[in-house]
Amino acid sequence: MNKGRLEAFSDGVLAIIITIMILEIKAPAGHEFVDLKPLIPKFLSYVLSFIYVGIYWNNHHYLLHGLSKVNGKVLWSNLHFLFWLSLIPVSTAWMGEHNFEKAAMTMYGVVLLLSAISYIILQYTIMCSEGSNSALRKALNKDYKGKISLVLYVIGIVTAFFNQWVSGAAYFIVAMLWLIPDKRIGRIFS
Question: Do residues 144 and 181 make contact, with C-beta atoms less than 8 angstroms apart?
Fold first, then answer.
C-alpha cells in the first residue's frame, strides 16, 4: 500500500470525527439569544475538541510525509491511533452535555491521554520502519513537548476528581502547546 491511501483514509476518519462532534450541537428550541445559553458548555467542549483533532490532523500529515513505505505495523498503529481519536466525539458530547462534571472531565482526559500514547506508538512504529537514520527520528530527538503533554494529561485526569476547572486548564494548556505545528518536523519535511 502506498502512503497516499493511508493518508486519505486517515483524513476521512478525522473529517467524520469533526462532523460527528458538530452534529451533537442542536439548535435551541427558542428564538431569543438567551436560548443559546444552554449551548455554551457544548460549544466550548466542541471548540477544544476541534482544536485537538486539528492539531492531530496537522501533525499526522507531517508524520506521514516522512514515511517512505507502509507496512502492516504502520497500518495497525495508525488504526490504533484513529480508534482513540474516534472516541473524542463521545467524550466531548458527555463533557458538554453535563457542564464539565468530574466524570466527564476524567473520561475526556483518559481519551486524550490514550490518543497521545497511540500517536507516540505510531511515531515510534514509523521511526522503526524507516531505520536508525530516519529523518523523523532526528527531528523528534527527545520530544520534550510530547512528554510534558503526557504529564499534563495525567494531572488533568487526577485533578478532575477534585476540581474539574483545573483539569480543563491542563487540557487547554496541552492544546495551546501544540496549536502551532511541531517545528522540528516541519523543518525537515517542508
Answer: no
